[in-house]
Amino acid sequence: MNEGLTGKTTEKISTTERALLLEIYSRMKQRFGPLHWWPADSPFEVCVGAILTQNTAWTSAAKAIDTLRGADVLSVRGISEIEESELAQLIRPSGYFNQKAKRLKTFVGWLNGQYHGDIREMSRTPLPRLRKELLSLSGIGPETADCILLYAANKTTFVVDAYTRRIFSRHGLVAKDATYDELKNSFERRLPRRLELFNDYHAQIVETGKHYCLKKGPECEGCPLEYLLEREGT
DNA sequence: TGCCAGGCCGGGT
DNA sequence: ACCCGGCATGGC
After folding, report:
1. Where on strand B do bases come within 7 A of a protein Cβ?
2. Is strand C less than 7 A from the beta carbon of A67?
3. pLDDT digits (tens, 9 = 90+) for A34-70
4. Res. A232: pLDDT tops 50
5. B6 C1' – A146 CA distance, angstroms?
6. Which CATH superfamily is domain A43-152 in?
């Protein structure tokens, strides 16, 4: 029986654990098709979206992004030059607008100072160092950093979010209180280290979560992972 | 009406 | 090293 994907570094990785994660991916992909995330027109918009969607429904973040685009501010220069208080008003629909305005300012300030405001230049930095730099910014935590790394900078890093924890714990595959890094390492050690796989795997998880694993709402009926529950028996 | 959404920070223990 | 209150709008 599966003992769960605990992420302990001493744990041996069996071929069946790897196969299980790949099977889960296969079933999600059969359900939703390839998703080729992230929904954005440019790598910089990915970064903006990653900050604006923190603990917020994507539809709300998308509204704020549309407002920014409409105000012709959805660019490194645009965010850099606009007054922070004015920026906050533009992104009101995304919630936490004062905090997020500051976080966007922090991000572009760093991007300008370190990489001449150039995402491609940023992306040439090796993954471990770039991840540490992002995490050092106030307002960029592990999930936001990994989203930027994976979907804007094309780094092969696995993104963990609320859906990942909820889906995999609901199916008895991880502890409910597993930390971010435990979950991330668990996936990264078991899965082939391929950019396209990491990219689409997280996208499939979010799609699965939105359809079948909200806190309230539809149970697992029709969920691509529903078959995993049969062995639980309460 | 109240709860929830693709987190994170800062201060306290 | 954890724990918690705060942050805020929009949808159901």
Report:
1. 3-10
2. no
3. 998 999 999 999 999 999 999 999 999 999 999 999 9
4. no
5. 12
6. Hypothetical protein; domain 2 (1.10.340.30)
Report, as an integer, the average pLDDT of A86-109.
98
Distance A17 CA to B9 C1' (A): 36
In this structure, is the CB of residue A215 within 7 Å of any atom belonging to strand B?
yes
Rounded CA gap, A70 and A75, in Å? 12
Q: Does at least one atom of strand C sit less than 7 Å from the CB of A57?
A: yes
Alpha carbon distance A204, A24 (integer Å) = 10
Sign of the torsion formed by the C-alpha atoms of A155, A158, A162 and A163 = positive
Token pair for A197? 């796989």
Q: With a cut of 50, say whether residue A138 has pLDDT above it.
A: yes
Which residues of chain A (83-112) touch nucleic strand B at CB < 7 A?
A: 95-96, 99
DSSP per residue, A66-134: HHHHHTT--SHHHHHHS-HHHHHHHTGGGS-HHHHHHHHHHHHHHHHHHHTT-HHHHHTS-HHHHHHHH
- Return the domain boundaries, chain A: 15-34+160-231, 43-152
d(CA A225, CA A24): 7
- Distance in Å, residue A171 CA to nucleotide B4 C1': 21
Q: Name the nt closest to A92 by C-alpha to C1'.
A: C9
Assigned fold of A15-34+160-231: Endonuclease Iii, domain 2 (1.10.1670)
Q: State the Cα–Cα distance between residues A52 and A95, nearest whole angstrom.
A: 8
* Farthest-apart Cα atoms in chain A, separation: 58
